[in-house]
Amino acid sequence: MQPKKKRRNVPLNSAAWLKLRAQVLAEEPLCRTCMASGIVTPATDVDHIHNGTGDFTDDNRREALQPLCASCHSRKTRAEMNGEAVTVPGCDVNGIPLDPSHPWRQPT
C-alpha cells in the first residue's frame, strides 16, 4: 500500500488560488529567477518555492510563492520531479554564467 499523498490546502483550480495567483503577479510582475540574472522577463506562472518538500500546509502564504516565467517554472518543476538541482542555463552578454550557484558567480 502506497503512502497517502498530501493534498494542497488551496487547490490550483479554486477561486482562492486564482485570487492569490493574481495578487502575486500584480505585486511582482517580473520573473524572479530572470531578474536575479539581470534579465527582464514578464512572469506568467506562480511557483510554490518549496514544492519538492511535500509539505503543502502553507500553500496560501504569500511568502511561499514566487512569480516565474514559463521557462523558469518548467525548468524548476522538471528538476524537482527528477530530484536534480535547479540550474539557470546560459551566460550573460559578458560570458558570465547566469546560474547563481556557478563557481564563477561566487564571491572571492
Summarize the structure.
Helix content is 28%, strand content 7%. The protein contains 3 helices and 2 strands. The relative contact order is 0.15.
- Please, what is the average pLDDT? 81
Output the number of helix runs. Answer: 3
User: Structural class of the secondary elements?
Assistant: alpha+beta
The rounded distance between the terminal residues' Cα atoms is 51 Å
State the shape.
globular
- Beta strands, count: 2
Could you explain the architecture of this structure?
InterPro entries: HNH, HNH_nuc. It comes from Billgrantia ethanolica. Keywords: Endonuclease, Hydrolase, Nuclease. The chain is an alpha+beta fold. The chain has one domain. 28% of the residues lie in helices and 7% in strands. It has helices at 15-27, 32-36, 70-81; strands spanning 45-48, 65-68. A two-stranded antiparallel ribbon has the order 1-2. The radius of gyration is 16 Å and the shape is globular.
Please render the helix and strand layout as text:
Blueprint: H1 15-27, H2 32-36, E1 45-48, E2 65-68, H3 70-81
Organism: Billgrantia ethanolica
Keywords: Endonuclease, Hydrolase, Nuclease
Domain HNH: 31-78
Short descriptors:
108 residues, hydrolase, endonuclease activity, alpha+beta, HNH, HNH_nuc, globular, nuclease, two-stranded antiparallel sheet
